[in-house]
Design brief:
about 50% strand; about 525 residues; 8-stranded mixed beta sheet; 12-stranded mixed beta sheet
Amino acid sequence: MRRIAPLLLILAASPAAAQPVVTSAAPDKVSVSVFRDPDRAEGGEIDPDWLQGFALISEQRTIDLPAGESVLRFEGVAEGMVAVSAIVTGLPGGVVQKNRDAALLSPASLLDGSLGNRVHLRRTDRATGKVTEEDAIIRSGPQGAVVLQTPAGYESLRCTGLPETLVYDGVPAGLTAKPTLSVTTRSPDARRVTVTLTYLATGFDWASNYVARVAPDGKTLNLFAWLTVANSNGESFPDANLSALAGTLNIETPFGDLAEPPPQPRLDLSCFRTGSGRNGIQPPPPPPPPAAPMAGGYADESSIVVTAQRRQEKLMDVPIAVTAIAELEDLGDLKLYRVPMPVTVAANGQKQVALLVKDKVPFQTIYRLRDCLRCEPKEQQTEIVLRMENKEPGKLGVPLPSGQVAVFERAMGRELLAGEGMMRDHAVGETVNLVIGESSQVLVTADNYYAPGRGGDDYRLTVTNANPFAVRIEFGFEIDDMKGLDSRIRKLPRRDGLPTWIVDVPANSARSFDYRAREED
């Protein structure tokens, strides 16, 4: 027994066997639900260089687990993953711990991880095309000039004037080519399991874009909308179940602060001013920038294909084969637009699908202006407003997410841009007032004069219509207190909470409205 005890102590002190590593390279199925940037103004455009929305990503993966404890690696997760939000279900032993492997493989991290090690410097002679290779040792990191030690001495990378590249014998330990989430788990036996990984990821956004085509009679329009989803992550999500959510979330924790990527080395190449590189030769200047594209030019305008029910639409006289329309669902107080077929959400790209198609929507064209009660003498242009009722009798009756609107009318044998505006979020039952521009043909002039002994100023509003057709004008008085106002103003109907003078003005005519405003005490 005395001889066995030391042996047992030696066995207990020896390191445990390394945990087996199981790698899942890609999901079998993936769902991407995109939320809009909560701070972007209604109707604002997506900035593809600064996407501040986020997505809820759910992946299903089939994994062969060994018995006992193992490390499970989920490769290909979004680089904007909020690691603290990750939930893994379907593991028989649950999750012991999880880690976000953030040391991604890149030219800078590869060079930084090889600092002090031997690499191969490959050069190509521009004149002969001959390729030469020699050993070199990296003596400085990726910041600033990358200094190499060669048999000929010290020099900076790419400062000889010749095409140069570094060739590595292997990848430094700890670097991964794909963003990866690692979890430690325990399984009572070896088995195949279906695991679901769900997490939040930054670097997404979506917006709607409307196209309104006015009918020749000027009384109805066809309304078509795109759903544009943007992904600034370096990972694609092929054949994903895609959906977009509209509405305002109650965000208690600024998870964006938790999603900041860890610092990664950055590769900045520069040469010594004194030419201390080999032969003191400086690299050639960069090539000139490419020529600007031709104004108004589009790539292959004749073939635009959008993914649901097949029907023909037109955008600026270009036929569009619409093969999918997003399906609307309720999710609590939010609205969910589900794309009814798998689509690929490409890395650093945008995806467009049809969001809405409504034909023969009746509308009115209103010319509108809102101004102060005691207006200074001046002449102002009016807003051009397209007014629709978001109700089923008005051929709408659906939630309208905010977005930009382009309005086209037919003239000279083709559709021309008549105006642009921004749509805010509209619920069913609301009146839609879409401002698409200003009119120089319908003007409002304000005049005032002092009447002695009457204790106030007399004002006259004059609206003129230079169009060859009659128009309706709404002038809203911006006032805070109705007390002491002229009865002519108090009797006006209200529009958006303002007393509003509503008048129809025939073609090439004018109309006036007189009122008095007492002096303030």
